[in-house]
Description:
This protein is α+β, with helices and mostly antiparallel strands. It is built from 13 helices and 9 strands. It folds into 2 domains: 2-65, no CATH class; 106-391. Helix content is 36%, strand content 11%. The strands form 2 sheets. Strands 4, 5, 6, 7, 8 and 9 form a 6-stranded mixed sheet that branches. Helix 7 (229-246) crosses helix 10 (312-327).
Amino acid sequence: MRNILTLLIFLLFLTSPLTIQYTQNGFQFQREAHGKTTCEEDDEDCQEEGEDEDEDSEKDEDDDDNGDEGEDIEGAEKEDNRKSVVSSEFTSPLSPTACKSSVSVVGTVGGSAANRINTAVAKSANYAKGISVFGINILATAEVADEKLLHAANITAELIDNNEDGTPDNTCVTAILSKLGGYVSMYNKAEGNSVEINSDSLDETGAVGTGLGAYETVKNYADGESHDASIEEIFHLITQRGYSTVYPKVFGESNTSTSSLAKAMDTARGGEQRCAKEECNWKYNNTSCPVWSDLVDSGDAWYFYADSTADYATMMTEYIYWSVSSNFGMHDSSAGRKKAKAEWCPNTNKLLKAQDPAVYNLINDPKYAFPTVLPNADYSFYKFKTSDINTF
Length: 392
């Protein structure tokens, strides 16, 4: 009887899938049994990660029960539920180029078998054309001018490949964005569109997207008041679905997150306050910025975004956008300061470093490879052209 039992255990060991992950303590071996990761008894790191994943799963289930899941592709900045689809090969790599990523600078929608979105799906959603940039599909209605679509392509390329050498700066982020079917949905005007986007077919594939109005893609503050929203909206996709998924303990965005980013944001908002409702009543102990270059007093808020439709997770999305965009100088002008001061004070690299060293150090850590140069819609490695756009 003992021999039979030993043989059965041996056969189970052979047939159970094996995952190998490199951690700071060396290679970690995990076995999948009945859909659940199991670790060696003496592997404390593995056990801790497993427990964290279980807790995250419970939190996600709670979010679902509260009815927070939802996504408005046509320009709304709020995502009620921020689920992280994390697999062990992507979790907290030690190097931004530790992951294999087969994405190319330019491609066609549906050009890869691994891509969740193909031309038939895009067409059924009422998109008429598109282009793939580093695996991210940029989809547009017929009303969007090719010039605006190419503008978005350039911005995407510059955010992903900020040093413009033709290779993603963080291959782990691009790999997960490609795996999750990341896409940008471009429409023409805030009101009066004759083409209505129906995202049901994209939702069915499990693809994740962000909305971008063609009218928002402008030269940054060229008119003295309007920033280039394509930088903001595309960056939201990169952090919400990329960095949040690859580095959940550092940049995880959710209503229950206790990541390093969440803790830094709580300080920036003058203290922790959470809300996961459809309407949130945010209140701050300070809602103004110093007139000159002085810093906000210690303990007071320097980030006071007050949109009642934004939940805690959305607050994180906006916070890291303001941080990174201020770090690379997007708002370093009188127009930029005027735009920022309604919700954000440290609008320059210098002010950010002095006011918010916690987030400054996070986003400037080379192992995360955040963009540090302001995109200008002119990607030097490759000249995007109209012939790169495929129509459906």
